[in-house]
Structure to design on (1017 residues):
């Protein structure tokens, strides 16, 4: 039995719950816990959770900010959105963006983290470079990309023309706009994914790697058998965070296309924004965001289950 | 260090030589795609309007000007904005590190009643976009009299669900034997948190710090919602003054973007050395 | 060591913040000048013009101190309704660049009816505003806002491109306009830089030139009528078949195209002139060509400036609004920004008439029409029906069927009852 298999098996075991605590000890542990979680839970409760509950309340009314009366409509907003073509279109776009982005991001991020694990100055420099897109402000880089992708005067167009290809309507085409937005989203988020996975990779115990090398294991084998299993919590984290963020994609789309052309890049949150702040339908917008919330909860629960029960060997 | 040994040993086999060149090609293409927009952005910040539009696809300016940077300096209370941004982003990040790690410790290490609910509540806060909560939060801040104040700007952002989640995952992967060893020495939760968990979580703490700092720095909407006077603005929020539906001055916009980018890039470059520490094995025989 | 510093600094910070929180928020100034706040979204190049108005007002009114806060329009959209409801908002604001947004604030009772009108000093001189502007801001017989500015569209053209194509003068009629656009589309250059989204509205103006329109006086759609369809089809044929303009441009992209010399003409407002000159274009500005029926027409665009219903200083707020729209202030504003004056009594002003840019825009003010004035749910009609429809027909969709379906949807939104 090689040291790799031993290491894998040990690493895969979750902390055992065999020593089930007695009720009394559990409650006294509870007191210590409350102190630790108090500041965070207080802030999140007041400034995020309570507003979420408030928005549920809005969604059950025909709510307009400032109106004298807020008529109760019960599930009226929810039935209305079922018949709203724009809603279904936005839902479809959002799902496409999420699936494509997350898969590509995790793969690219992992490969980059793997390729840039060292600590030389060169590696640090290259890592910083890949992190630039994540760090730059979105409105500025949205403007830059719009210019670069301009089919008449952009740099991309210049490059295409110089190799004899015709210019392409990236953001103005109803078919290419969504892939282009996805591309820019991936461009912007790869650095972020890279450092999350890098933090995880750095947590791989050095002895395991040494032992594997001494055993003569090849690089792909090491990646598959040691690194991937050990960074499973980090992978889960990265995938979950990326999925949750992708499903709520707003700023990038708003800056690059505003949801167009002809709603080709409309996401659920751009629809929420439009309903809430352009059409002043706060109740309806809240209803859509609660449907989105339910979707995110569902997808997250599925992902947590998938990562926990996935086969080890 | 050990990874360098790894790569030099592996270089002997032809298969891994192919892997090495694949790595270089992959990184090369990635670097080009990643950096070209920034080179363009930097170049435009130094170009005159006529140079930009006569040669829009060029990366090298032909007509140089400092107008972009001087306009930003002259038209904005620059130093005040930078101070505001550091107070906001820096202050909230520090608080985040403390509060997030405390909460994550409890979620990862203490089996208390309501732990799962707590975790799901934290996750839930990530699942609703800001556009949905902005109106109720604004009204809350109004009732607290916190609009247009530093505390209104910082405290609601003094914890991040992202940080709690990441740190919880990371803490869960720290071996429990280290806890046990400390407990045998008589340590309570606070001591374990401080002496065992935190020192071993440097990569994760650095990650949380960098990402939170960066998000807070670039956060446009929150400072714009909370503040209503130009002196309380953060730098990125103030830079939105130069944009518009029919943009006329690209050099100023790009100069603003470049200025905004530099502190973050520097912060990330410096924080990288903290990613080095792996899981500590000290304390065990 | 590092951890200690971390803890020390964050606990110090937390204490400081807690103390600040407990000590409460801002306090009212009991004596001293009346303080007013104004929110506008006038970012971009003409910001100095508005800053000057505030500066000059503060200088000439020692008992009132006005601070203007400029934020992007979408931030104001998100904050203003709640801010005004809680009474925490600005005393005066420009809620949007779209005049029809005022309807929403009137409905929720968030804006003050302006009663300090008249010709005396410190009163809002509504008689000097063009009738279209007063009408668009009047609901139930009460005036709820004044125009913060007033812009018209003119035809910018590239003199060099015209010379190269052998055209000696800018088009005077819409037929010449179309012919020139086709002639100028060659060698990688477009005849016209036409934007259909996130822009000052260009397509409605094209429709008006052809004798078509979007809604009639009963707010019922006329897109599907023969005139409406024809007005659209003429131009979509030019775009789709003759390729006189690219498809799907935003305002900023159309401006860039013209600035780069890749389009020979663009219909745009006064804000663009300096940018085009800086870009090195040999610039000509002409009035919009005459419509099919021989009349002059152009698109007028204004932003509302309104007073909060919950302001503590309604008298001073209206004084500020009156100052903003007064004769001397508007003359200075026009000179600084190139905007035409929004007062009819400045139409013959010698200083403004002497300026070649301003005079072109100002001369078209009497013929300017607003886009969807006083139409219920105008923002939805625009964002969800009209703009997507233009997007579809310029990409080849059938004009007849698109106008019919869009027309029906528009009728539903505006509550058109006469059908």
């Amino acid at each position: 039995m090689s040291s790799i298999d031993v290491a894998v098996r040990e690493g895969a075991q979750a902390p055992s719950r065999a020593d089930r605590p007695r009720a009394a000890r559990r409650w006294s542990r509870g007191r210590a816990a409350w102190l630790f979680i108090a500041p965070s839970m207080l802030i999140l409760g007041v400034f995020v959770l309570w507003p979420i509950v408030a928005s549920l309340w809005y969604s059950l009314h025909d709510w307009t900010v400032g109106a004298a009366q807020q008529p109760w409509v019960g599930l009226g907003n929810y039935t209305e959105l079922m018949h709203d073509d724009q809603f279904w279109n936005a839902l479809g776009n959002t799902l496409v963006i999420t699936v494509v982005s997350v898969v590509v991001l995790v793969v690219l991020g992992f490969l980059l983290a793997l390729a840039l694990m060292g600590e030389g100055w060169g590696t640090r420099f290259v890592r910083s470079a890949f992190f630039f897109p994540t760090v730059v402000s979105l409105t500025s880089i949205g403007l830059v990309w719009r210019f670069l992708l301009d089919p008449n005067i952009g740099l991309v167009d210049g490059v295409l023309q110089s190799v004899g290809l015709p210019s392409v309507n990236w953001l103005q085409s109803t078919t290419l706009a969504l892939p282009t937005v996805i591309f820019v989203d991936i461009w912007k988020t790869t650095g972020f994914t890279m450092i999350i996975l890098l933090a995880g990779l750095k947590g791989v115990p050095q002895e395991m790697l040494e032992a594997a090398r001494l055993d003569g294991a090849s690089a792909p084998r090491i990646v598959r058998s040691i690194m991937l299993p050990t960074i499973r919590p980090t992978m889960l984290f990265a995938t979950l965070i990326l999925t949750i963020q992708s499903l709520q994609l707003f700023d990038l789309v708003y800056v690059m296309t505003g949801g167009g052309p002809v709603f080709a890049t409309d996401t659920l949150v751009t629809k929420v924004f439009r309903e809430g702040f352009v059409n002043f339908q706060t109740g309806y917008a809240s209803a859509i965001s609660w449907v989105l919330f339910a979707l995110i909860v569902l997808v997250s629960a599925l992902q947590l289950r998938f990562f926990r029960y996935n086969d080890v060997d | 260090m050990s990874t360098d040994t790894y790569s030099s040993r592996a270089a002997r086999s032809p298969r891994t030589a192919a892997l090495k060149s694949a790595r270089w090609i992959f990184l090369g293409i990635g670097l080009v795609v990643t950096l070209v927009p920034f080179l363009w952005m930097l170049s435009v910040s130094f170009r005159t309007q006529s140079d930009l539009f006569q040669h829009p696809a060029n990366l090298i300016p032909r007509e140089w000007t400092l107008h972009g940077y001087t306009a930003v300096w002259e038209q904005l209370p620059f130093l005040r904005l930078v101070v505001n941004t550091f107070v906001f982003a820096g202050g909230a990040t520090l608080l985040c590190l403390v509060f997030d790690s405390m909460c994550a410790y409890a979620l990862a290490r203490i089996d208390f009643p309501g732990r799962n609910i707590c975790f799901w509540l934290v996750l839930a806060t990530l699942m609703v976009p800001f556009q949905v909560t902005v109106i109720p939060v604004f009204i809350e801040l109004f009732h607290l009299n916190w609009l247009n104040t530093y505390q209104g700007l910082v405290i609601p952002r003094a914890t991040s669900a992202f940080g709690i989640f990441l740190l919880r995952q990371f803490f869960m992967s720290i071996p429990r034997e280290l806890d046990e060893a400390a407990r045998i020495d008589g340590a309570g939760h606070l001591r374990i948190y401080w002496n065992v968990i935190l020192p071993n979580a440097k990569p994760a703490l650095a990650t949380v710090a960098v990402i939170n700092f960066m998000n807070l720095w670039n956060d446009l909407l929150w400072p714009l919602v909370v503040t209503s006077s130009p002196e309380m603005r953060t730098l990125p929020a103030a830079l939105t003054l130069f944009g518009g539906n029919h943009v006329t001055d690209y050099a100023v916009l790009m100069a603003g973007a470049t200025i905004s980018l530099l502190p973050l890039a520097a912060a990330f470059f410096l924080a990288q050395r903290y990613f080095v520490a792996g899981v500590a094995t000290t304390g065990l025989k | 060591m590092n951890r200690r510093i971390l803890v020390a600094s964050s606990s110090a910070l937390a204490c400081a913040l807690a103390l600040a929180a407990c000590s409460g928020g801002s306090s009212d100034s009991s004596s001293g000048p009346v303080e007013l706040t104004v929110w506008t979204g006038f970012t971009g190049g003409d910001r100095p013009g508005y800053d000057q108005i505030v500066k000059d007002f503060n200088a000439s009114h020692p008992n009132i101190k006005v601070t203007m806060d400029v934020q992007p329009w979408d931030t104001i959209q998100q904050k203003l309704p709640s801010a005004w409801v809680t009474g925490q908002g600005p005393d005066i604001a420009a809620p949007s660049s779209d005049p029809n947004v005022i309807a929403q604030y009137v409905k929720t009772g968030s804006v003050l009816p302006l009663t300090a009108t008249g010709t005396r000093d410190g009163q809002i001189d509504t008689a000097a505003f063009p009738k279209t502007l007063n009408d668009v801001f009047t609901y139930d017989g009460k005036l709820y806002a004044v125009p913060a500015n007033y812009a018209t569209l003119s035809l910018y053209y590239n003199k060099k491109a015209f010379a190269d194509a052998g055209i000696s003068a800018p088009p005077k009629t819409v037929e010449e306009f179309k012919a020139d656009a086709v002639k100028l589309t060659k060698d990688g250059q477009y005849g016209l830089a036409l934007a259909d989204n996130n822009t000052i509205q260009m397509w409605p103006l094209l429709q008006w030139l052809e004798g078509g329109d979007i809604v009639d006086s009963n707010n019922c759609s006329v897109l599907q009528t023969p005139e409406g369809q024809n007005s659209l089809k003429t131009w979509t044929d030019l775009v789709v078949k003759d390729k006189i303009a690219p498809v799907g441009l935003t305002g900023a992209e159309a401006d860039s195209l013209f600035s780069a010399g890749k389009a020979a003409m663009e219909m745009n407002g006064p804000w663009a002139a300096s940018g085009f000159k800086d870009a090195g274009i040999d610039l000509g500005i002409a009035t919009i060509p005459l419509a099919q029926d021989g009349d002059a027409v152009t698109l007028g665009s204004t932003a509302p400036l309104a007073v909060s219903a919950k302001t503590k200083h309604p008298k001073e707020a209206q004084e500020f609004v009156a100052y903003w729209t007064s004769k001397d202030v508007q003359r200075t504003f026009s000179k600084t920004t190139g905007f035409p004056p929004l007062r009819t009594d400045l139409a013959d002003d010698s200083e403004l008439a002497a300026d070649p840019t301003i005079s072109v825009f100002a001369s078209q003010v009497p013929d300017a029409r607003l886009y969807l004035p006083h139409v219920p749910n105008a923002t939805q009609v625009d964002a969800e029906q009209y703009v997507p429809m233009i997007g579809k027909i310029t990409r080849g969709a059938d004009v007849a069927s698109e106008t019919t379906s869009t027309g029906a949807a528009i009728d539903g939104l505006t509550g058109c009852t006469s059908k």
